[in-house]
Structures are given as structure tokens and as C-alpha cells.
From TrEMBL:
<dbReference type="Pfam" id="PF00106">
    <property type="entry name" value="adh_short"/>
</dbReference>
<dbReference type="InterPro" id="IPR020904">
    <property type="entry name" value="Sc_DH/Rdtase_CS"/>
</dbReference>
<comment type="similarity">
    <text>Belongs to the short-chain dehydrogenases/reductases (SDR) family.</text>
</comment>
<keyword id="KW-0560">Oxidoreductase</keyword>
<protein>
    <submittedName>
        <fullName>SDR family oxidoreductase</fullName>
    </submittedName>
</protein>
<dbReference type="InterPro" id="IPR002347">
    <property type="entry name" value="SDR_fam"/>
</dbReference>
<dbReference type="InterPro" id="IPR036291">
    <property type="entry name" value="NAD(P)-bd_dom_sf"/>
</dbReference>
Amino acid sequence: MKTAFITGASSGIGRATAVALAKSGFQLILAGRRRERLETLAQELAPTPVHLLTFDVRERAAVETAVSELPAEFAHVDVLINNAGNAHGLAPIQDGDVADWDAMLDGNVKGLLYVSRAVLPRMGEGGIIVNLGSIAGYEAYANGNVYCASKAAVAMLTRTMRIDLLPRGIRVAEVAPGMVETEFSEVRFKGDEERAANVYKGVEPLQAADIADVIQFIVTRPPHVQLAEVVVFPAAQAAATTVKRAS
Ligand code: 8X3
């Protein structure tokens, strides 16, 4: 049985990916900050073997300890899904909140690095890493500043990881979604539900399961096939801020 390691598994795209990969016959290492949610998910996934890790990807020591203590049945990792990440705030650069900047750079960029560094020694020929980028990594938009920069870093890290890991036979992909309805906007707007709801107003956004489908496709390709970058929009979106809304 192949093993997939998913960060940010307690909600959104990570959770949906856990469901999709369980259906594809993977056993799962699910990492997240919210233990109770992970436990509920593990119950839902039964009889799929699941190992839970509770850590915040921003805490390097916690990441390293958790990965070093994986039990023998989960010691080899075939697929790593670097999904954990968030947007915090949407403000002009001159008004940015430093804590928001730190959270995005520490989580979206450094967290991805910490997890990859810890997990890579457990991966071998035929392994696949999928990094969750964003259309925000390809297009600048007003007030996106540090979030866009963090996702541009994910895009570039994906490309450079693919080069560095070529000799080891590890494939590396980036999935870059546009508008997906998850807790993303609630987190970005710090619980302001009205502002979050407005993001999806008059639009049928993607659901987490739509992105999970794409990830499932990437990680079930035959060994000679490497997806590199996949940008995924809902039908009503053509670019980061070009959206057709029903009035
Ligand atoms: C999420 C997409 O357009 O809000 O990463 O940046 S967007």
C-alpha cells in the first residue's frame, strides 16, 4: 500500500485530498493543527490506515520531531502533498500587518520547506511531491502583496525542487487554484463572514473536492508521467480578478 503525507489535512483542500487518496488506495499520514478534526476525519476514512500528526508547519522542531517518530508502517513516504497554508489580511503594502506577513511567509514558504526537508529522506524513486500554489503566485492583484509573493515562492520552489530531485527520480508538481470555496476567505478576512461571502457572490466557485480530483490525477499517473504545473479556475473565472458574476 502506498503512503501519502498530507499537510493542512484538517480542512479544505487537504481534507478533500485525504478523502480522494483514501479512495485511490493510499494509506495516509495526516498532519494538521486541529487534532479533533483530524481524528474525526480518520474515523470517516476507515478502514484506510491513517497516522495522525499534530503540528503547525511553521514550527520546524515540531515538524522534525513528528516526522522522525513515524511508525515503521508509515516510515516510507510515496507522495507528499504540501497543502498547509493560508492568506492573512488583504491590505495595501503600506498598511500591512507584520504578524500577517510573518504568518504567510512562515507558513506558505518556510513551512513547505521544513516539511519537505524532513520528509524527503523518507522518499525514493517514483515519489511525487505536490505543492499547493495559487493563481496569486502568477498574477499580481491589488493588496495581494505578501500573499502573492508567498505563492510566487511556491511556484519557483516547485520548479527548482523538480530540478534538484530529478536525479532521485522524485517528480514535483504545483497545483495553482483560483477561486475555491473553503475557509480560505474567512481566514484571510479574520472571521468577517460577510466579506468572505462577497468573494464568492454570484459565482459558482470551485470546491475543495475539485482540487482534490486534480491532485488525485497527478499522483496516480504512471511512473514516466510528470505533471509540472496545473492552474485550475472555476468556469466563471478567467484570471485572478476577472470573474463573471451573476447580478
Ligand atoms: C487563492 C486564490 O485569487 O484569492 O489562492 O489569490 S486568490
